[in-house]
Every structure is written in structure tokens, then in C-alpha cells.
Amino acid sequence: MAKLAVLIILGASLALLGQMFVAIRERFNASREVEPVEPRNCHLIENLENGSEDIDILPTGLAFISSGLKYPGLPDFAPDEPGKIFLMDLNEQTPRAQALKISDGFDKSLFNPHGISTFIDKDGTVYLYVVNHPHMKSTVEIFKFEEHQRSLLHLKTVRHKLLKSVNDIVAVGPEQFYATRDHYFTCFFLTLLETILGLRWTYVAFYSPTEVKVVAKGFNSANGITASLDQKYIYVADVTAKNIHIMEKHANWNLTPLKVIQLDTLVDNLSVDPSTGDILGGCHPNAMKLLNYDPNDPPGSEVLRIQNVLSEKPRVNTVYANNGSVLQGSSVAAVYHGKILIGTVFHKALYCVL
Ligand SMILES: [Ca+2]
Ligand SMILES: [Ca+2]
């Protein structure tokens, strides 16, 4: 009898494990391959070899690029080098990426930049907000951009108990922003478990010097975040749920869900086309290849454009798709006057004229 009980328990455990294995493969699109979609006029950007996880382009065509992210479980080609913020002027005939100087009074040796966002104040001052992970913790660094010196002046480090495992931010004021939390747990093993179990314990937090609060919750893994051109809506990518949440923003900064755009790819960072309001998503077509990195079968890249975001039937087009032979692990895309920049978590970055 005891043997039978052991056998039943073993059988049930194996069945459960099998089910979990299938669920993980499905969640990470483990068997998906991409059909190539490659604009003709593209080239890899010199100097950007170790990631370009997030990109934010100013209305003047200056692009900020965060590079050198160290993130548990993901490849890193320069583990001993601190991260950097690069600048590119997309008005130039052949734009080059140049690392920005960072003022003293900020520990550059621990700089581990992740999501970024810019904010232009009424007087024209440009602020750059950067999610930073010194010692794998989360802070938000606020810099003032000094264009003539091509440098960043560090103003403030924001820390808060609600700002844990921060992935991306969108600045909505000189000291106000929304931030996504991508995992509930901070220990790597538990983060893996929460992904496997499909827990919906992550959220969007709002920060201001006087008030910090959770404004939207119930995401598998809240990742990229941005605002609509009119600032009335906030768009949030839930990467492992493979969708984008459209949320209405209220005067008290609370968010209410409006709709969800379901996709078949793991959406990372979002940007908005300044000329159309379309959403551009940097996506991971097969995240299993990202987590089990093999240079001989690398993770691919995919950029989607979502038109008529607020309509009943938004249109989804593929702007770029590659199996990893050119670009691996795309995490963001942003456009300016017919040009597109595509960034990656740990690989290179691509510039195309569309
Ligand atoms: Ca961002
Ligand atoms: Ca991200």
C-alpha cells in the first residue's frame, strides 16, 4: 500500500513538472522562429557593443541610449565595465554614438543603467531619469542634461520601498514619474519561480517627493512604460503576458485600465512615434533563447508598430525582425523623422533609414 502511495505521488509530481515545463515553454515562446523583415538601409552603430536596453529621443533629434545593463540571468559581454549613457544626434548625416560625461558626486563605477525617460521643463531644461541597479538594488537617478558640454549633471538619487526591481520609468514632471516593477521577489530563484507560476504580483508605482503609491497592479512582469503624445494615457508592457495595457491617467495620478492589446511576442520597452502617436515595441520573439544564451542559436529581434492604439481594432505591423544573425535581444525601438534606432538588452544597436 505504501508503495502504491509513493508511486501515485511520484506520478502526480512528474505530471505537474511536465505541465510546468510546457507552460514555461509557452510563456517564453520557446518554439517560435521569426520571419525576417529588414529595411534595406540599416547598419550597426559603432561603439554600442554591450547593450542599448532603452532609448529616448528628444523632439530635437538627440537620442539618449542606456548601455551596459547587468541583469540576473541574462548575458553580459562586459561584466567588469560600468554602464554608460550614450548620445546620438539623429540630424547628422551619419549619426555617431558618444558616451556622455557624468558629473562627480555620483558613483560611476556602480552605474548599471536600465530604463530611461526624458522630461523637458517649461524653461527648456532637459532632465534624464535613469533606472539604476547599483549592487543589483533599484534607484532612480535624476540628471540634468548639459547639451554644450555633452554631459549629465547628477541631481538626485531616488530610493523608496515601493521602487523595487524597477525596470522602466516615464517622467511626467520635474520630480514626478511612473515606474514599473518587473518582479515581486528580488532573489533570482524566487523571481524564476514567480515567472513559472505566472503570478501577477508586479505593479506600476507613481513617485513624487510628497506622495508615492501603487497606481496599477496585477501584471505578470510590468516592463516598458511610456505616455501617449497628449499625456492622457499611460502604456505599460507586460512582457511575459505578451501584451500592452492602455491605462487612463487621472488628475490625482491614479491609473485606470482601458484596454489590453494582446500580442504573440514578449514586449519589452515602448516608445511613441512623435508624428503619429503609434506605439513602437521592442520585443523578444523567443525569450527562451534569451535566457539560455547560445551564440550558435542566438535570440532574435522584433519591432512592432501599433497603429490606432485607442480604436476598437489597433493595427499591428512588424517593422523589423531578425533571427539574431544581425541583432540579438531587441528591447526598444524609437523613431525620428523617418529614422529608427533599435536597441538590445546586451548586444549591439541598429540604425535604419525607413
Ligand atoms: Ca523608457
Ligand atoms: Ca525593459
UniProtKB/TrEMBL annotation:
Enzyme Commission number: 3.1.1.2
Disulphide bonds in the chain: 42-352
Cofactor: Ca(2+)
Keyword Disulfide bond attached: yes
Reaction(s) catalysed by this chain's protein: a phenyl acetate + H2O = a phenol + acetate + H(+); an N-acyl-L-homoserine lactone + H2O = an N-acyl-L-homoserine + H(+)
Keyword DNA-binding annotated: no
Active-site residues, Swiss-Prot/TrEMBL: 114
Glycan attachment sites: 269, 323
Gene Ontology MF term list: acyl-L-homoserine-lactone lactonohydrolase activity; arylesterase activity; metal ion binding
Membrane-traversing stretches: none
Keywords in alphabetical order: Calcium, Disulfide bond, Glycoprotein, Hydrolase, Metal-binding, Signal
Cofactor binding remark: Binds 2 calcium ions per subunit.
One Pfam family it belongs to: Arylesterase
GO-annotated biological processes: response to toxic substance
PTM info: Glycosylated.
Residues annotated for Ca(2+) 1 binding in this entry: 53, 116, 167-168, 223, 268-269
Enzyme class of the recorded protein, top EC level: hydrolase
A GO cellular-component term linked to this record: extracellular space
Binding site for Ca(2+) 2: 54
Similarity comment text for this entry: Belongs to the paraoxonase family.
Protein name: Paraoxonase
Organism from which the protein derives: Fukomys damarensis
